[in-house]
Amino acid sequence: MKTILITTAALALTAGTAFAGGHSVVRLGTEGAYPPYNFINDAGEVDGFERELGDELCARAELECTWVTNDWDSIIPNLVSGNYDAIIAGMSVTDERDEVIDFTTNYTQPDPSVYLAMDGMDLDVSAGVIAAQSNTIQSAYIASSGATLVEFATPEETISAVRNGEADAVLADRAYLLPIADESADLSFAGESVFIGGGVGMGIRESDTDLRDAFSAAIDSMKADGSLNALIAKWEIGEGF
Amino acid sequence: MICYLTTGKHMAIYTAVATVLILLAVTAPTALAFGFAGAMAARARFIPLQWLGRAYIAIVRGVPDIAFFLFFVIALDQGFEWLRHKWSCPDWDQPIRQGNDFVVCDAAKLPLNSAPQWIHESYGFALAVLTFAIVFGAFAANVLFGAMRAVPKAQLETAAAYGMTQRQTFWRILVPQMWVFALPGLSNLWMVLIKATPLLFLLGIEDIVYWAQELGGTKNPRFTDYPHPDWRMWYFLALLVFYLGFTWVSERVLDRIMLRLTRGQATLGGDAQRTAA
After folding, report:
1. In A, residues 65-124, which contact B (CB 8 Å cutoff)?
2. What is the sign of the dihedral through the CA atoms of A203, A208, A213 and A219?
3. Cβ atoms within 10 A of the Cβ of B91, count?
4. Cα separation of A233 and A49, whole Å?
5. φ/ψ of residue A37, rounded to 5
6. Which residues in chain A touch residue B70, judged by CB atoms under 8 angstroms apart?
7. Can you list the domains of chain A with their CATH numbers?
8. Of A35, A101, A207, the CB nearest to B103
9. Which of A132, A154, B232, B248 is buried deepest, with most CB atoms within 10 A?
10. What is the residue-level pLDDT of chain A in tens, covering all 241 positions?
11. How far is CA B244 from CA A230, B233, B247, in A?
12. Best residue in B11, B96, B214 for a mutation probing chain A (most A CBs within 10 Å)
């Protein structure tokens, strides 16, 4: 048994992508409420930038993958307790998260976060009331910026908070806010963009180094042949590599 | 309109309604069974069993539901997986707890990673039923415990005088008469249980409130064929109607049960029925 384990591990290391720690099926956990990164489409399936990316990564790493949706607030606890094997949910790489889980190499550039406010609003980003989704890099940033932070469990609610006056502005990834600003005449960007986080990566259990390496290798190969940039451009995620 | 209401996503909310109804249908009897067992244990002559029953009632009633649902279910799931791990992978030489991670061998995963999604969902559903049953069972146990004590002592003494054993007195005299005292408390619990179903989402089950939120959220034309602004109010209004209708029907049914249970009982209600007849 031991020898089999060792050979498997050795094979996985040498082939890099072959077995990924003996996962027969890799379960990918996402939030499904953060377009264009991930959302539920009309047919009720996970769709978006990360859906296409994840499927392609699994194909390149020769893994069989399934998709699972999970509430954002409990997305890390459910990963470490083994309910799924990877988080692919627009999660930025940060030091705090890195203490609990591991990240693959990032598959987006650090995306600028922007403030979205009611049109004509004179926004003071260091003293106003700013909305953000809880447990995000943006909420941590606001908490340390001096502004008053109001947190919401879903991104959708942060936008409503601005519309009904509960918050002066919302701080979120530009890629998420851009389509919303385009569609609504009453909302517009305000203040300066801020750069926080180290780009978006997949979250993997710390003990699952084979899987992390397999996905990192697949991401690198997508970066190398330009297919990742094509996806980023298609979903308007931000700058390419 | 018809097209919009029959998208795959809307089908999911209809399924979720069924899920909630099935959950209630399964959980209510299970919780009642837990409650009955708990009440019996709390009344037991055998002291350790009595402690067990009372501890169960006191602890579960004292812990906030949401903490119970977040913490207990993960612990329960890990407990099952740990047992299976010990059973099916005796040769495993790595620690199960690696830092924050909980790692068991692939064969011990519950359900298996390779299992289709519906098995994962059913497993989550079963965990939900169990957790709901434990939580509401404790409240039901307390209600039943009180109801058992509310049965007039003279009834039990008469039974003893007729030469019935403890067991016979319990099943033939006490239990049939206690329901009428238990019903108001139990009906309260049922109403609370109906409203507690949105806690399901904490367990990873997509219930109607989750889908209402998801479907009602602003839909950008870039990501859907049916763009619309924030319609959550309308979806929640539909939920409101659903829950109100459901509790209304429940009340009607519970009233009838109460009427039936009161018949021939030595209570005020029973006397009223007798004099009216």
Report:
1. 66, 68-71, 74, 77-78, 80-83, 85, 100-101
2. negative
3. 9
4. 10
5. -65, -55
6. 74
7. 2-109+199-234 (3.40.190.10), 112-195 (3.40.190.10)
8. A207
9. A132
10. 444 444 444 444 333 333 444 567 899 999 988 888 999 888 888 999 999 999 999 999 999 999 988 888 889 988 988 888 999 999 999 888 998 999 999 999 887 899 999 887 777 878 889 999 998 999 989 988 888 999 998 888 899 899 888 999 999 988 899 888 888 888 888 888 888 888 899 999 988 889 999 999 999 999 999 999 999 988 888 877 7
11. 50, 16, 5
12. B214
Helices (H), chain A: 2-15, 49-60, 75-80, 95-100, 137-145, 155-163, 174-183, 209-224, 227-234
Q: Which residue has the tokens 């763009």?
A: B227
Residue B85's Cα: distance from chain center in Å?
29
Helix, strand, coil % in chain A, rounded to nearest 5 = 40, 25, 40
List of residues 6+ apart from B89 with CB closer than 8 A: B104, B105, B107, B108
Type of residue found at B184: P
pTM for the whole structure:
0.76
Retrieve residue A209's tokens: 């180094």
Query: What domains, with CATH codes, occur in chain B?
Result: 2-66+134-276 (1.10.3720.10)
- B252 — contact with chain A (CB < 8 Å)? no
B45 vs B26, B41, B210, CA distance in Å? 31, 9, 46
What's the gap between Cα A167 and its chain centre?
A: 24
B109 touches chain A (CB under 8 A): yes
For residue B129, what are its two tokens? 């039923």
